[in-house]
Every structure is written in C-alpha cells, then in structure tokens.
Design a protein that fits this description.
The complex is a heterotrimer of chains A (384), B (316) and C (269).
Chain A lengths: L4 H6 L14 E10 L2 E11 L4 E6 L5 H9 L6 E6 L2 E2 L10 E4 L11 H11 L4 H14 L15 H13 L5 E5 L7 H18 L2 E6 L2 H7 L2 E6 L2 E6 L1 H6 L4 H6 L4 E10 L4 E5 L4 E5 L10 E6 L4 E4 L11 E11 L3 E8 L4 E7 L14 E6 L5 E3 L2
Parallel strand pairs in A: 3-8, 3-9, 6-7, 7-8
Antiparallel strand pairs in A: 1-2, 1-4, 4-5, 9-10, 11-12, 11-14, 12-13, 14-20, 15-19, 16-17, 16-19, 17-18
Chain B lengths: L15 H11 L4 H28 L14 E4 L2 E4 L4 H8 L1 H34 L2 H16 L2 H12 L4 H8 L11 H26 L2 H9 L4 H12 L1 H16 L3 H6 L7 H10 L4 H31 L1
Antiparallel strand pairs in B: 1-2
Helix pairs in contact in B: 2-14, 3-4, 4-8, 4-11, 5-8, 6-8, 8-11, 9-10, 11-14, 13-14
Chain C lengths: L5 H23 L16 H7 L2 H34 L6 H13 L2 H19 L7 H26 L2 H9 L4 H30 L2 H6 L7 H10 L4 H33 L2
Classes of the chains: A alpha+beta (384), B mainly alpha (316), C mainly alpha (269).
EC number (chain A): 7.6.2.11
Organism (chain A): Devosia marina
Family (chain A): Belongs to the ABC transporter superfamily. Spermidine/putrescine importer (TC 3.A.1.11.1) family.
Chain lengths: 384, 316, 269
C-alpha cells in the first residue's frame, strides 16, 4: 500500500538526494527530560515535504514525546525544531502551522461534527460562508456528509476517527501529526482505514508524521520509518530497508522475527566475509564485504523465510551455510508453516516454508533430521 | 505551501487575549498566579487567620467591655507589652466539666460512628451490588435527605421519638408502655446515625462498586464460604472507604451542637455545646477560644487519617 | 453470585429508617390539632399560618439571598482553587493551599463560626470594617466553607477531564484563555451547576456558623426555626419542613429524570 514504486522513483524520495532537497522539518539534537527521566535523547531527524513518516517504537520509546514537541505541547530541554525553515522553539502550539490528530481523537463532546471541524477555522477569523464551504469540503473528503449535525457520541469509532482527521486538516496545516491514528479501531476497520489515510495524504500532499507502535501499520503507511528505542532513533529508512537491512540487533528483533546468531570473523575480504559460528555448527559465508576486523565478535541475523529446509544434505557455498538439526515444533499457519529446528549446540532456528502443495503428504514432520541452508546475501551482519 | 489551495492565506486576526497575556507576562504575572491569587487570599484571610485569632484570644482573659477580652498587646509609654494568660488552658485541665465534656464527646462520636458503619455498610453493599437501573435510584434516595435541611431532619426525629411520638404510639398498639427516648444519650446516637448516614454510605459505595465481581467469584471458586469471602476479600479491600466514611462521621460528630441540644438531655455533655454555652451564655470569649483550640487538637489526627483514606478511595 | 436475603432486608430497613421520620413529619403537617403527635383531622391551616408569619418570611428571604450570594462567590473561588490543585502539579505552598481548601469540609461548625466572629470583631477594631455583623459577614462565612465543597466537586470533574481536548483546541489555534472558555468551561459545566446547588443548599441549611456571625436583625431561617423548635414541637415548622422537603425532592427527582432521559439518547448511533 505504500506508494507505487514507479511513482516514488519519479518524484517523492527526496531523502535519497539530500544535496538538492531541503528538509521540511528539521529536528536537531533534541532532548527532553522529565525530572531525571530522559524521554528523548539527542534526536536528529530530517523530514521532507509530502512524506508520510512513521515514528515506530514501543511504549516509553519517546515517540509520543517527540510528536508532542513538534506540536508545541512540550518544549525541548535542548536542541531545536525547525518547520519550513522557521525555528519553532518559542512558538506556542496555537501559533504553529501544525495540526495534530490525537490518539483519543479529542473531539469536543459538546460540539457537533461541523462545529468540531469549524473550530480551528473560526479561531483564524475566516468569514462564515468560507468556513461553511470548507467544512462541507472536508465532510465530503472523509465521506461524512450526512453526519455534520451529529454529536461525537452519536458516531461509531471509525466515524470519529474520520472527524478527527477532518478537523486536523481543516486549517490546511503544512504538517499533520497523527498519534496512533488507527490505534482505537478494530483490526478489519484498521486495514480499510490505512488505505483511506494514504489516499488522503497523497491527494492533499500534506506532510504526515505518524506515531505508532504497530510495525505492520508503519510498514504499510510509511514512506520512511524512524525506529525509536529508549529515547533515541535506532534506525531511519524505507520500510524495505528496515526489514531487509536492519542496522542493529534491536531493529532486527523489533521488526518482524529474526534468528540471531553469534559468531567470530574468520575471513575478512573486500568481496566476502566468513563467520565462524559454534552456535550454528557451521560457517557463515557472506557474499559482500563488511566493515569489521578479523576475529571480531559479531552477530548475524536472518529472517525465517530466507532459509530453506531439506532432507538431503545440500551442496552449500564455499563449504558454509549448511546447518543441521531436528524438527522440534511445527506451527501450521495455513499459507506457511514455521518450523523450529533444534541444532546440536542447543540453538533453535525458526524457518518458514510456503505450503505450496495442498495437503502435502510428504511434508517434513516432527523429529526428522533436516538441513537448513541459505543464500550468501540472505542474512545481515550486525556489529551492534 | 503544499496545500491543495494555496491562494488563500489564513488572515491573522488580532487576538486581544494574547495581547493581555503578553502584557501581564511582561510585568511578571503569569496565568497561574491569576488563578491562584483569589482563592489563596480568601482562604488565608477567612480561614487561616481566623484560626490564628482564635489561638491569640485563647491566651487573653475575660473582661467587661468591648471587645470582652483583655488585649494581647498593650503599649505603654512607647513600649509594647505582650500579655499572655494561660488560665483558660489551666482551667480546661483542672475543671472536671471540660475534661468530662471532651471524653464524653469522643465516646459519643465513636459509638455513633460504629453504629453508622454497621447500618451503612450493608446498605452501601446492597446498592453496589444492585442491578444497574436500580443503583442510581437508590443512590438518589441516599442523597435526597442530605439535601433536605439538617436541622429539619433532627426536628423530624424529635417528633418521632418523643414520649407521645410515632414510635411510642405504635408500641402502644401492642400494649407496650411508652419508652423514654428523648433527652437521652440514645437519642443523640440515633440523631448522629440518622443525619450522618449518607456521609458513611457514599465513600463506602465508591470503594465497593469498584470491586470486580470476579474477585468474589474467584474466592468462591477457591472454596471460600461467603462469610470468608467477605472477611478476607471484601472487607480488606473496602478499608479506605470504611476509614473515609468513619472519619466523615466522627469528625463533625465530635463538634456537634444541634443534635445534643435538641435531642440530648441536660446531662448529655458534648464539647460543641460547651463551647456554645461558654460563648453565648457566659460570654467568655477567651474560654470559648481555648475550648476551640483544644477541640482542634482532638480532630487533627482523624483529619489526617481522612486525607490519606480519601486519597486511596480516589486512586482505586 | 448467589444473593442472600440479608443485604436486601438490611437495605430496606436502612431506607425506612432514613425516610420514616420525614414521612411522619409531612403527614403531621396536615394535622388539625396543634398537638403535633395526635391526629385529629386533615387541615392545611398550618401552611396558611406560615405565610402570615412575617418573621419567618423575612428570615426565609434573607436566607435565600445569602445562599445565592455565597454559592456564587464560592463557585468562582472553588473553581479557581480546583483548577490550581488539578492543573498546577507543583508550586510553593501547595500543601498549605490544599489543606486550606479541604479543611473547612470537616472543620466543626462551632470552630468555624467562633473563629470568623473573632476575626470580624478584630478586623472591625483594627480596620473599621466590616461594621457590625449581619448579612455581609454571614455571606463571607458561608462562601468560605462552600468554596471547599465547590472545589471538591469541580476537582473530581477536572481530574477526569481528557487534557487532549484542551491541547486539541490550542493546536487548532485557540489561546489558553480562549480554550478555557470554549472547551473547559462547557465540559465542566455540570460540575459547576452541582457545586453551586450544593453551596446554596449548605448555606440555606447552616445554623451554627450563622448564629455566631450574624448580628441583631439578621436572623436566618435556620436560626428562627431553631429558636421555635427549642421551645418544643410547633406545627407550623412541620408545614415549613414539608414545603422545603417537597421542593428539594422535586429538584432531585427532576435532575434524575433528566439524567435518565438523556442517557439512552446518548447511546444511540
């Protein structure tokens, strides 16, 4: 659901060309302390026009605090925030060109849907007719034309969410902040709404910054994701980068599931690296150079779907990349099955295989001895 | 601008409040101070200072004139002299009337509080466990008497309990001799229970209604008989409500004046009544002040208990 | 869970204890005889008597004025105090302030009354104000303890308040003051109404404090009732009590019905 690749290639990946593109939001060395607790630590982040940027992290990772600093509800303890070239540090929330969609939606319970949407426009002192026109425009945008006179408590959860979005968009903000925008919706509605949200964002071209703890949501919505951990940015990248090329053990484990193996560098060449792993009981051959030193201890992460199971011993690569073990558990998930393989070292690998044959009578089963193999570029070498 | 309609920039309207705020901030006045200042000054002048004045006057002596007490500070030929009289406090400890009044106030308030708890707990529990649609109506029935006049409710009791009152007429139907209830300590207990019952029920209800029914089910499932569930689960969990309710009855009951003077007999000694008489009948303001200071000391500990319990009731 | 018989019976007995004296008082207010407890026939003459008693009517009018004024002052002060206590987490003297706000709730009336009277006397001596005692001093005294009640009611409403509503308003361009009037005030309005009503009722009901701080010629309704009742049961007080109970019951009933009526409406989508 993220933007179609050809579209991206044409115009909307300014972060790949930082020399010619000015960031729209500049967060520079921002820290926030609450008493002795450091909520956000030295975060620097550039976000470009028309991006849909997701801040992804667990609770207490500082993602919401960062968002609240962008909105102006919290002041950074140090560092600066610039929006469209303007320093926002001294600007109170009500004078910022930024609007926010709240996690609880924060719809004013004593006002109708129309009044909620009109609220920000009234504060700007727009003429009545103009406000009415704008409200109708927004109601149409979120498909709530017939609900303008209702009060928030007369709406369903999904409708409330759309009113909150319309209200936040009413003032044509340069930047829209969304705090867990889909968090309060049930699973099915969430999936539908994801599409809607991306559609509206593309249509209006507004820059979105979304805070979420749900990695699936981040992967489907975002042009780029900033993974946050303990107040710091752990990694910034496009969804595929984050999943396929994690930069640390934290990111590899946090996004999707990964097998994490410890090893020692035995060959360190410009075109390949060999890692000795007693956990795996075999060497790992990596088909590209890695920034490391011989005999360095490091980690290697591989996704369960990047490995292949077989009964016969495969050839392997350069005498590496073949581990053997016994099938301990099988989780049948319909489209795939996840096998848990116990290696001789006691290490357990999770390997997923597509169930491409219907009711396969010859499928690998419990207690079988199997070989696990993988490609030379299938895993990521991690030094932190 | 990237919005889809860049032609209309939002017009900036002058916001008078912003200007006022900025102006005040410039002279060092923040919004916070504006909010705080009025209640703070009011309470300082009309709550804290009066208590200090009471303490000051408790250290003077009665005299004839206006005001009817000796001045604390006198200036004679340029020197200011502070005269403290401790005789009021000495009298409090040596005169049996005061000691007896204090002890009897505490005793009456404590007994009445326990009875109120025994009457109120089952009621609060019944309301908390009642079906949803009944609960609001029952709560309304508890609150309703609270909104009707306190004085009139005490008065209603006098009509109920007097020698030829409703109760005795009812008993007379069965040939039972009239019972003397009015002007006894018993009538005072009934009066306190009757008027303060809502204060007991409401905090109890608040804690009881928040208890998860599955707690009782779990206890029963683990083999506890209802009485054990009550003793080991319900009772301990409702302790904050018990303390809050009891203190809300006990503290005002100690200083109660209307109930003992309308329902109690001449030998019903309560400190609130003593203070009243000292002030209105004997016009001994310093003595009345000393009685008040001593009464404050008696209620300080219960007040602190109450504050802690109320915190716990609210938190849960 | 199995329901026993104990709770319903205890509750029924408790409620009859609460209501029996009131009911009997109302019944006997229609009694012909001036002996309040012996029924001799239906009559409304005591109600008529009531409206021909200028002392009682004057006192009732004075009490209503005092109650309205002190409840209004308390509404402003109590709301401000509640905002300070809920919103300002830390400030110097917070403990003292919180103590001063909540102490009047439990302070025995005799102490409050005595202390305020002594203050007024001392202030008159030093400042020449307030001159003598009467309506003004009663209003001040009542406003002080009603502030505590208003504060408690508003405080509980404010602490349930979703702060993001205010943040949303500011985010949409409303200044803090504007936000208060547009969002905060309308949402806490029910608490303000009940706080005011509570203050009004409590002021109307107070005997002890008013007795201390009132002056000659400013007897409130409870003071008049008390002096009548002290001499024994008087049937016109029965009539007066019935009227007051009737008004209060109607008020509480109306409030409950409004609540019940609006609730199902809120639920429908």
């Amino acid at each position: 659901m993220a933007k179609k690749p050809q579209q991206l290639a044409i115009d909307t990946r300014p972060w790949r060309d930082t020399a010619n593109n000015k960031p729209f939001v500049r967060i520079k060395n921002v820290s926030k302390k609450f008493g002795d607790i450091i909520a956000v630590h030295e975060v620097s982040l550039d976000i470009y026009k028309s991006e849909l940027f997701c801040l992804l992290g667990g609770s207490g990772s500082g993602k919401s605090t960062l968002l609240r600093m962008l909105a102006g509800f919290e002041n950074p303890t140090s560092g600066t925030i610039e929006i469209d070239g303007q320093d926002m540090t001294e600007v109170p929330p009500y004078n910022r060109p930024v609007n926010m969609m709240f996690q609880s939606y924060a719809l004013f319970p004593h006002m109708s849907v129309e009044q909620n949407i009109a609220y920000g426009l009234k504060r700007d002192g727009l003429p009545r007719a103009e406000i009415a026109a704008r409200v109708n425009e927004l109601l149409a945008l979120v498909k709530l034309q017939d609900y303008g006179k209702r009060k928030p408590h007369q709406l369903s959860g999904g409708q409330r969410q759309r009113v909150a979005l319309a209200r936040a968009l009413a003032k044509r903000p340069k930047l829209l902040l969304l705090d867990e925008p889909l968090g309060a919706l049930d699973k099915k509605l969430r999936e539908e709404t994801q599409f809607e949200l991306v559609k509206i964002q593309e249509q209006l071209g507004v820059t979105f910054i979304v805070v979420t703890h749900d990695q699936e949501e981040a992967m489907t919505l975002a042009t780029r994701i900033g993974v946050m951990n303990q107040g710091e940015i752990a990694m910034i990248g496009e969804p595929t980068d984050i999943y396929e090329f994690p930069n640390s053990r934290f990111v590899a484990n946090f996004i999707g599931s990964a097998n994490m193996v410890e090893g020692v560098v035995s060959e360190d060449e410009p075109d390949h690296v060999r890692i000795r792993s007693s956990e795996l009981g075999c060497d790992i051959y990596v088909g590209h150079g890695v920034d490391c030193a011989p005999e360095q201890r490091l980690w290697w992460a591989i996704r369960p779907e990047k490995m292949v199971l077989s009964r016969e011993k495969p050839a392997g690569l350069h005498g590496a990349n073949v581990a053997t073990g016994i099938v301990e558990e099988i989780a049948y998930l319909g489209d795939i099955s996840v096998y848990q393989i116990a290696l001789a070292s006691g290490k357990r690998l999770r390997v997923s295989q597509t169930n491409s044959v219907r009711g396969n009578p010859d499928a690998i089963t419990w207690e079988e001895t199997v070989y696990v193999t993988w490609d030379e570029d299938a895993g990521s070498v991690l030094t932190s | 601008m990237t919005t889809h309609d860049p032609t209309i920039p939002p017009p900036r309207r002058l916001k008078p409040w912003n200007a006022v705020e900025r102006g005040l901030a410039r002279v060092g006045i923040t919004g916070r101070m504006l909010v705080l200042i009025a209640p703070l000054i009011w309470l300082l002048v009309f709550f804290l200072v009066p208590l200090a004045v009471v303490f000051g006057i408790s250290l003077t002596s009665k005299q004839f004139g206006r005001p009817p007490y000796t001045p604390l500070l006198t200036s004679e030929e340029g020197t200011v002299q502070l005269t403290l009289h401790l005789n009021n406090y000495i009298r409090l400890f040596t005169d049996n009337l005061y000691v007896a009044a204090y002890l009897s106030s505490i005793r009456i308030a404590a007994i009445a509080t326990i009875i109120t708890l025994l009457v109120g707990y089952p009621m609060a529990y019944a309301i908390a466990r009642a079906p949803d649609r009944w609960r609001n109506i029952l709560l309304m029935l508890v609150v309703l008497p609270f909104f009707t006049s306190f004085l009139l409710r005490v008065y209603a009791l006098t009509g109920f309990m007097r020698g030829n009152g409703v109760i005795n007429q009812f008993l007379g139907l069965f040939g039972i001799e009239p019972i003397v209830m009015m002007q006894t300590d018993f009538a005072v207990y009934v009066g306190i229970v009757y008027t303060y019952l809502p204060f007991m029920i409401l905090p109890l209800y608040t804690t009881l209604v928040k208890l998860d029914v599955s707690l009782f089910e779990a206890s029963a499932d683990l083999g506890a008989r209802p009485i054990h569930t009550f003793l080991f689960v319900t009772l301990p969990l409702s302790l904050p409500g018990i303390i809050a309710g009891s203190m809300l009855v006990f503290i005002p009951a100690i200083g109660e004046f209307v109930i003992p003077s309308l329902l109690g007999g001449p030998e019903t000694l309560m400190i609130g009544r003593v203070l009243w008489d000292e002030f209105f009948s004997a016009t001994n303001w310093p003595r009345a002040s000393a009685v008040a200071v001593a009464m404050l000391l008696v209620v300080v500990v219960p007040i602190m208990l109450l504050q802690r319990a109320q915190g716990a009731v609210v938190e849960k | 869970m199995r329901r026993g018989w104990f709770l319903p019976i205890a509750a029924a007995l408790g409620f009859s204890f609460l209501y029996a004296p009131i009911v009997s008082l109302v019944i006997f207010s229609f009694n012909e005889s001036s002996l309040v407890t012996v029924w001799s026939g239906f009559s409304t003459k005591w109600y008529g008597e009531l409206f021909r008693d200028p002392q009682l009517l004057g006192a009732a009018w004075l009490s209503l004025q005092i109650a309205a004024l002190s409840a209004s002052i308390a509404l402003v002060l109590g709301t401000l105090a509640a905002i300070a206590l809920v919103r300002f987490r830390r400030f110097r003297g917070r403990t003292l302030f919180a103590g001063m706000v909540s102490a009047p709730l439990v302070m025995p009336d005799v102490i409050t009354g005595l202390s305020l009277l002594l203050l007024f006397v001392a202030m008159e001596g030093f400042l020449g104000w307030p001159q003598g005692r009467g309506m003004l001093t009663i209003v001040i005294a009542h406003a002080t303890f009603c502030t505590a009640y208003v504060c408690v009611v508003v405080q509980s409403r404010l602490s349930d308040f979703d702060r993001s509503l205010e943040e949303a308003a500011m985010d949409l361009g409303a200044s803090p003051v504007r936000t208060f009037f547009d969002i905060t005030l309308p949402i806490i309005a029910p608490a303000l109404v009940s706080g005011w009503l509570l203050g009004f009722t409590l002021s109307l009901d107070d005997l002890v404090i008013a007795s201390f701080v009132s002056g000659p010629g400013s007897s409130t309704l409870p003071m008049v009732i008390f002096s009548k009742v002290r001499l024994g049961v008087s049937p016109d007080v029965n009539a007066l009590a019935s009227i007051i109970i009737g008004i209060v019951a109607l008020g509480v009933l109306a409030a409950t019905i409004i609540q019940l009526r609006t609730k199902p409406k809120n639920r429908q989508v």
